[in-house]
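Support request, please re-run this one:
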Amino acid sequence: MTMMRMRDHYGGDAEFHQIPRHPKHTHAHTLTHSHTHTLTRSHTHSHTRPPDKMCLCLDGSPVDDHKYSQHGRQWETDMCGACCSSPCGCLIAMIAPCCCACHLRKMALNNDLTKYQCCQRFICPSCASSLCGCCENSCPCLTLCAEGLLCPCWAISSTRMYLQEERQLMNDACDNRLIRLNNCLQCLACVCHCFNCEGEHCVRCIADILFLVVSGCMQAQVRHELIRHPTVNDYGESAPLIGAKGNGY
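Re-run finished. Output below.
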């Protein structure tokens, strides 16, 4: 699922399901999620999500044929419950998303920055490789800081997608709803900006606030997972599996 947040320009980014990017201005950031994994702020690509599910922002069903839909392990907490499971982490992530994004990426990589890649190659892999490849090996810490500062949405989403890929984690229906609702509001903010609609600033303000809340919950969810299971080998037989509880959809 993809989450987005708009600024002065417009566009939309979704990790695997993207919203068409418009040729004008707008600044987009992306975060991560499964099924629609990316929180976005404004610039973006277009893409593969069924239009009906993109419009039905409260639909919690997974995206058809999404690769993460085959994963069998559940998160320790969904995004809605993350604010209760890790309230301090959620609050700090909303206040300082860039710093938290860098910190969580290091945690996800077990403090081994030799594994670091810009957005872990989940977002625009060819561009990330050509632009950041030369710095990733020589200055991984500096490159990570630049990623977190310049595109925090993508940094947050990439860390979450990295965990999902590594640990076979699947999104909860609530996660899908939050990300889709965020994306729909970002699209609405873009439309209002393009047509100079009355109330544009109010819509953008609401969209920005929602983005901060959802990104904070997303980072709190990732942090809670990393604290409970620092590495992929720390999951025991008691780890929640989709097959044991149903897929939640």
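The beta strands are 2-4, 38-40, 73-74, 169-170. Residues 200-228 form the longest helix (29 residues).
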